[in-house]
Specification:
Strand content: 5-15%
CATH architecture of the largest domain: 2-Layer Sandwich
CATH superfamily of the largest domain: OmpA-like domain
Distance between the termini: 121 Å
CATH topology of the largest domain: 60s Ribosomal Protein L30, Chain: A
Largest sheet: 4 strands, mixed
Radius of gyration: 47 Å
Shape: rod-shaped
Number of domains: 2
Length: about 200
């Protein structure tokens, strides 16, 4: 009996020291399945996000290209219209009596046509140039040319032209059309000339 007790005691000690044998862990397929599904779903979500990002980038690039093409076309069309407008711009000079800057009745029709043209070509800016004949001092003629240009500018504004489309400038006697000292030549030089300054 003593021997049996000793044997039992040794056996129990051995069990305590080594521990109980563990049952092998069996991982069922059901337990593995959710982890695999999560991985598949994550991969699917990643691919969908990449596809969505690619589609958005392509749509953005397409929209930018369309906007760029539209802007280019509009710029080309605007340039073409401006070129046509500039080509069609034919306005005769108007003339003034000696030492005067009031607009003559016969020149009002010319200015009316110019006003209509400017209202139809709002991107164009013109320069109204005042000129004088050679008589009088340089300073006097510069001032007189300025009054002539200014009176024409104001008249165009009263006809409905936006004042920002017009600038006026005096050349006085500096740019004569005719160099002879005759009344006919002086009359040609007492003028306001119109030039396109900007077509943008």
């Amino acid at each position: 009996m003593k021997r049996f007790l000793s044997l039992t005691l040794v056996l129990m000690t051995a069990i305590l020291v080594t521990g109980c044998p563990k049952k092998p862990t069996i991982v069922k397929e059901e337990a593995k399945a959710p982890a695999a599904d999560i991985k598949v779903q994550e991969e699917k979500a990643r691919k969908e996000a990449e596809e969505r990002a690619r589609a958005e980038a392509e749509a953005k690039a397409r929209t930018e290209k369309e906007a760029e093409d539209r802007a280019k076309k509009e710029t080309e069309e605007k340039a073409r219209k401006e070129a046509e407008a500039v080509k069609a711009f034919r306005v005769e000079d108007i003339h003034f009596d000696y030492d005067r800057y009031d607009i003559k009745e016969r020149d009002r029709e010319t200015l009316k046509s110019l006003a209509e043209w400017l209202q139809n070509n709002k991107d164009v800016k013109i320069e109204v140039e005042g000129h004088c004949d050679e008589r009088g001092s340089n300073d006097y003629n510069l001032a007189l040319g300025e009054r002539r240009a200014h009176s024409v500018e104001q008249y165009l504004v009263t006809l409905g032209v936006n004042g920002s489309m017009i600038t006026s400038l005096s050349y006085g006697e500096e740019k004569p059309l005719c160099a002879e000292s005759t009344e006919d030549c002086w009359w040609k030089n007492r003028r306001v000339h119109f030039a396109i300054k900007d077509a943008s």
